Amino acid sequence: MRITDVRTILLRYEYEKPIMDALYPLYDRQCLLILVETDEGITGIGEAAYFGGPGISTQTVIEHELKPYLLGEDPMRMERIWTKLYRQSYHHGRRGLVLTAIGGIDVALWDLLGKICNQPVYKLCGAYRESILAYASGCFYQEGKTCRDVAEEAATYVGQGFRAVKMKVGRNREAPLNPLEVLTNSAASVTLDEDLERVAAVRTAIGPGARLMVDANNAWAPSTAIQMGREFEKLGVYWLEEPVMTDDIEGSARIAEALAMQVAGYESEQSLYGYRDLITRHAVDIVQPDPTWVGGFTEARKIAALAQAYNKLVVPHSFNSAVSILVNLHFTCSIPNGQMVEVDRNPNPLRDDLLEEPLRLDDQGCLHVPNEPGFGIRLNQATLKKHAVGG
Q1: pLDDT tens digits, residue range 278-327?
Q2: Residue 64 annotated in active site
Q3: Does 3.30.390.10 match the CATH number of domain 3-118?
């Protein structure tokens, strides 16, 4: 079997009013799908993350740089292909959108492998479990969104069956070293005290039985993160995510040492080597690789194995489409140190309507892995047509 073609499909859904994390506004949601085709008529489907820029940039890298290196390759030789793509693009890649592009291709190759073997991917990787707890990821900032609004939003997630909720913190112009004032949209900023009020309101709204996590998206200095973290601990927050810049490994390690609460991160780290430093220097307690962002399913499994060697849990970042959720579900259920899977709850038809059969929680707040070949991706053609860019 040989690879004969690589195609991409870029989808986009525009928000009427942007939502914001600690630093960045989201004006739309995008999804870059990758289709790897073979001479035996079997096609693998993957997704590449687009964070930090337009999806068309990653699309261009895949179609005009990486595709020629794939044609004629045996698709089952994923390690060979991964190394070939990584080393060919090394001098202008290593991380960023090039590694993301490689990751989307790698995910498609794993889907293809599952279809060739007529097995779901998680079973090919050992099938440690068949279902896992899902957490609702939402409670973003937005102009006009009050503390009460955030609390009510979080309560709806618990009402939908989620037993864990993550919210945004860190959009504080007053905080030392916060770069918000130089970014393109600094609206909806709150004070540190107002952030604490938001977290307290959500804690009350979801009740003591639901797990609460907070995500600062790299916005704080270590001293601010420790100060806020100690207040979060009083509110029973389960983890503090990405409190400082990803490359501030020493600062993150200081925070992890100072707090009893767990430090989670860093989704914005991409490479195995970067995660090696975060893990071995104990800068994180919970490790968050996203297969669509870190170079694919192949690299994510290596990161998870390294985390296991240091007795650290893995909870992958997952903020793309329904395809990404499926990939992360297979990934987390295939490893012994997986704990939860993230399910974004912001409005997004590329999550809710992209699959023929949407993912649904069971009565325990868990997602079950589909037992279809590959990742079990069956795309809704009407959604593809409606949201295709340039289609």
Answers
A1: 999 999 999 999 999 999 999 999 999 999 999 999 999 999 999 999 99
A2: no
A3: yes
Q: Within its chain, how far is the Cα of 232 from the centroid?
A: 23
Identify the burial level of 260 via C-beta atoms within 10 angstroms of its C-beta, where 0-12 means exposed, 13-18 middle and 19 or more buried: exposed
d(CA 287, CA 308) in angstroms, rounded, equals 10
The full 3-state SS of 191-205, as one line of letters, equals CHHHHHHHHHHHHHH
SS3 261: coil
- What is the rounded CA–CA span in Å between residue 168 and residue 134? 17
Class of domain 122-381: alpha beta
Distance CA 177, CA 181 (A): 10
Each residue of 226-277: pLDDT tens digit? 999 999 999 999 999 999 999 999 999 999 999 999 999 999 999 999 999 9
Return the domain boundaries, the chain.
3-118, 122-381
Q: Position of tokens 């899977």?
A: 341
Considering the entire predicted model, what is its pTM? Answer: 0.96
Which of 64, 91, 92, 317 is the catalytic position?
A: 317
**Do the strands 262-265 and 286-287 form a parallel or antiparallel pair, or are they unpaired?**
parallel
Q: Which residues contact 159 (CB under 8 A, 6 or more apart)?
A: none
Where are the strands (E) in the chain, listed by range?
3-20, 25-38, 43-48, 131-137, 164-168, 211-215, 239-241, 262-265, 286-287, 313-314, 340-344, 366-368
Distance CA 102, CA 87 (A): 11
